[in-house]
Write a structure and sequence with these properties.
heterodimer, A: mainly beta, 12 strands, about 0% helix, globular, B: mainly beta
Chain lengths: ~110, ~120
C-alpha cells in the first residue's frame, strides 16, 4: 500500500515569509497528487491538483506545487504567506484508483 | 450552500449504542466516499460508492460498520455497538466522473465521541 509522508508536523512563520511544505509518496506507478487545506472550523478544500502535464502546478490563493517524479515528491510553496494562511495542510495521492491516501498533515501558524 | 453536507455535526454516544450518520453529496455527483480522521492524522479511506453500488471497503471497516447509498444520492454510515476507539471525525466526500482524474469535495464531517 502506498504511503504519504509530510515532513513537518508544525510550521510557525511570520507574515510575508516564504512557505514550503514537503510531501513524499511511496507508490511507483502513475499517481494523481493533491494538496488540501483545512482552515479552522472549516471543511477540507482543494488547493491544487496534479494529474499530468506541466509538473509545476498553480492553485488557489497564490499556492503552487512542483511534482518531481524522480524524487517521488510534490512540495507545496507560497512565496509570501498571510495571517489567513493559518491552517492545516494535507498532501494526498491516488494511485490507480479513487482512494485518497493522505499524509498526517502539517499545521501552519502564521504570526501577524 | 450546494456543497457536501453531513448530519449531525457532532454526536456523543455511550459505548455499546448504535449511531447513524448521513451524507448528502453534491447533486449529480456519482461517487461518494467515507473517510475517518483521528487526532493528528490525515483522513483514512473507509468505503466508496459509485452510484448506489458499494465498490470497495477498507479493512478498517469492521463488521460493526455498514454503509448504504440506496438511491445513489445520500448515504448513511451506521456503527453498531460503538466502542471508544470509534471516536473520530467521519468525513464524507463526493466526486463526479468515470475515470481516475477526479477531484473529491469534502463535507465538514461528523465528530463522534464515544463515552
Amino acid at each position: 500500500a502506498q504511503s504519504v509522508s509530510q515532513h513537518n508536523h508544525h510550521v510557525i512563520l511570520s507574515e510575508a515569509a516564504s512557505l514550503e511544505l514537503g510531501c513524499n509518496y511511496s507508490y511507483g506507478g502513475t499517481v494523481n497528487l493533491f494538496w488540501y487545506v483545512q482552515y479552522p472550523g472549516q471543511h477540507l478544500q482543494l488547493l491544487l491538483k496534479y494529474f499530468s502535464g506541466d509538473p509545476l502546478v498553480k492553485g488557489i490563493k497564490g499556492f503552487e506545487a512542483e511534482f518531481i517524479k524522480s524524487k517521488f515528491s510534490f512540495n507545496l510553496r507560497k512565496p509570501s504567506v498571510q495571517w489567513s494562511d493559518t491552517a492545516e495542510y494535507f498532501c494526498a495521492v491516488t494511485a490507480g484508483d479513487y482512494k485518497l491516501s493522505f499524509g498526517a498533515g502539517t499545521t501552519v501558524t502564521v504570526r501577524a | 450552500d450546494t456543497g457536501v453536507s453531513q448530519d449531525p455535526r457532532h454526536k456523543i454516544t455511550k459505548r455499546g449504542q448504535n449511531v447513524t450518520f448521513r451524507c448528502d453529496p453534491i447533486s449529480e455527483h456519482n461517487r461518494l466516499y467515507w473517510y475517518r480522521q483521528t487526532l493528528g492524522q490525515g483522513p483514512e479511506f473507509l468505503t466508496y460508492f459509485q452510484n448506489e453500488a458499494q465498490l470497495e471497503k477498507s479493512r478498517l471497516l469492521s463488521d460493526r460498520f455498514s454503509a448504504e447509498r440506496p438511491k445513489g444520492s445520500f448515504s448513511t454510515l451506521e456503527i453498531q455497538r460503538t466502542e471508544q476507539g470509534d471516536s473520530a471525525m467521519y468525513l464524507c466526500a463526493s466526486s463526479l466522473g468515470t475515470g481516475m482524474n477526479t477531484e473529491a469535495f469534502f463535507g465538514q464531517g461528523t465528530r463522534l465521541t464515544v463515552v
